[in-house]
Design a protein that fits this description.
Elements (H helix, E strand, L loop, with lengths): L10 H7 L14 H11 L11 E6 L2 H10 L5 H4 L2 E8 L6 H10 L5 H16 L3 H25 L3 E5 L4 H8 L5 E10 L13 H4 L8
Antiparallel strand pairs: 1-2, 2-4, 3-4
Helix pairs in contact: 2-7, 5-6
Family: Belongs to the nitroreductase family.
Organism: Paenibacillus sabinae T27
InterPro entries: Nitroreductase, Nitroreductase-like
Length: 215
Amino acid sequence: METQVKNSLSFSQVIRDRHSVRKYDPSRTMSDEEIQDLLSDAILAPSSSNLQPWRFIVITDQSLKEQLLPIAYNQQQVVEASAIIAVLGDLEAYRNVDSIWDSAVEAGYATPEVRNTMVENSWNTYSALSREKQKEIALVDGGLISMQLMLAAKAKGYDTVPMGGYNADRFREMFQIPQRYATVMLIAVGHAAAEGRQTTRLPLEDVVQFNGFKG
């Protein structure tokens, strides 16, 4: 049963209402259009040099979710949530720099001269990085978009839980993911069957220091 959810929440309310939900109503699904609408908000996230290294595998097929269940260490949300969104990071995102800056010129956001300079600089810089550094950048950008995806989902009335606990090698094998792409996380998205657990945060004074670091 596909059910559309339309909510309008303030940002302050969204970040306070968002909790990791692990129990979902399996009878409620999301349409491809709803998921695409969610991802359209998520991809507005920032990235290093705007290279947008994120890639997604959206898993809604129930038989695939059943196959994924043991790979995700039998976390029940894998088969109960409306969708599992796998976030990947492209270690060679610089290869897309031409099309990124071509679209910026077409939109009137950059001149051809700026485009040519940025394409050359981005290609020369990122292609020369070590594989380890390329992966580090992809994981940072993957974290940024993952958080944006979860906040966007909450703003639209859905719930989520990020999952780092899964066998990445078996996941790669299942979906035949090339080594060019880093696995960032899995995100369950759907309609909560039970509220997420309330949590507390460390006091601000325990985590913030101004103008220096004293340990």
